[in-house]
Design brief:
Blueprint lengths: L4 E2 L9 E2 H4 L14 E2 L1 H10 L7 E4 L5 E5 L4 E5 L4 E4 L3 E2 L4 E2 H15 L7 E3 L6 E7 L4 H7 L2 H6 L2 E7 L11 H7 L4 H10 L11 H14 L6 E3 L5 E3 L4 H16 L2
Parallel strand pairs: 11-12
Antiparallel strand pairs: 1-7, 2-3, 4-5, 5-6, 6-7, 8-9, 10-12, 11-13, 13-14
Helix pairs in contact: 4-7, 6-7
């Protein structure tokens, strides 16, 4: 765990019920009934980040601490609001990192909220795993990955590609991205543009798709391209060969089943 942050003393306020400040999100580390959160806990979170959105909360596994999820981040807050811990929290009995589990659930919910129309999908007849890939045609490793599509399909991996421009905010002004995602046959256009660097033909604009992809990438705060997100929300990393990706997905599935 990182060092504790000290929060200045704050005036008492009327107690706020948890259901007014958060949503209990099953599918993440939080699947418990609404509880009453001490005002000092809420004040501590907002003292660190006034814009913080409390997505879920519960009494923590350590007496005197509350677990607060802001989506990507899991905080442990003392009931008097004085101490806030941010970092890895291991449940050794279950063999799981609760902070990682919460972050995975958060990513999974964002990806699940993206419409199918926002992806260019390559799928085998019977997919074993589904991976979401945020990509850009100007990225060298994205080009390599596109050239190995058949290897991923042979491994039973379905790839769903989302547009992630090298410069955030540039998707609507990126003619290459727009022409790929808006093409009549996006799969073949994708392969031509990524592997042979063939400029796709002009097509009618479908900006809503690109805006959706870029908004999701911004929320996910991805490190770059390609960024691979597994079936359970794990950030698998950047470029991975078909064999390496399959091995990583098997490990991820095994860990998820053990929860």
């Amino acid at each position: 765990m990182r060092a504790a942050h000290t929060i200045p003393a704050m005036p008492n306020q009327i107690r706020i019920f948890a259901f007014a400040a958060m949503m209990v999100l099953c599918g993440s580390a939080f699947c418990t009934p609404a509880i009453t959160i001490p005002p000092a806990v809420l004040q501590a979170v907002h003292a660190l980040d006034p814009a913080a959105h409390i997505a879920a909360s519960r009494a923590g596994p350590v007496p005197g601490l509350f677990e607060i999820s802001t989506g990507r981040t899991l905080l442990e807050v003392s009931d008097n609001g004085r101490y806030v811990f941010e970092g890895h929290l291991f449940d050794l009995k279950r063999g799981v990192d609760l902070a990682t589990l919460e972050a995975n659930g958060w990513r999974s919910r964002i990806v699940a909220g993206m419409p199918n129309s926002s992806f260019i999908t390559f799928a085998p007849a019977r997919p074993r795993f589904v991976v979401t890939v945020f990509t850009d045609p100007s990225c060298a490793y994205c080009q390599i990955m596109a050239g190995q599509i058949h290897g991923y399909l042979a491994a039973g991996i379905e790839l769903r590609f989302a547009a992630y421009p090298a410069e955030m905010g540039a998707s609507t002004g990126n003619p290459i991205l727009a022409r790929i995602w808006c093409a009549r046959n996006p799969q073949s256009t994708f392969i031509s543009a990524f592997t042979r660097r063939v400029a796709p033909p002009a097509t009618s604009y479908c900006g809503g798709v690109l805006t959706t992809d870029e908004a999701a990438a911004a929320r996910l705060q991805l490190p770059g391209t390609p960024s691979l997100i597994g079936p359970h929300g794990a950030l698998l990393g950047g470029y991975l060969s078909p064999r390496t990706l399959l091995a990583k997905l098997v490990l991820d599935a095994t860990a998820h089943e053990a929860l």
